Fold:
Amino acid sequence: MFREAAQEALGEEALESFRSRVKAAAEQMAGTLFPGVDGLDDRDPYARYAYRIHLVPAVSA
Structure:
């Protein structure tokens, strides 16, 4: 079973806000520096492996 969700078209102000958020996200993703957060396992001990990419040192240069 599925449900089709309907959404009204965005108004001009909401559309501009959406575009602004997408642009900011694209600029961040296009960057060369992605700061990590150390010690995530202290806050969420069950997600230790999920954050492993942040905890393992680089293996290539």
Q: What stands out?
A: The first helix runs from residue 12 to 29.
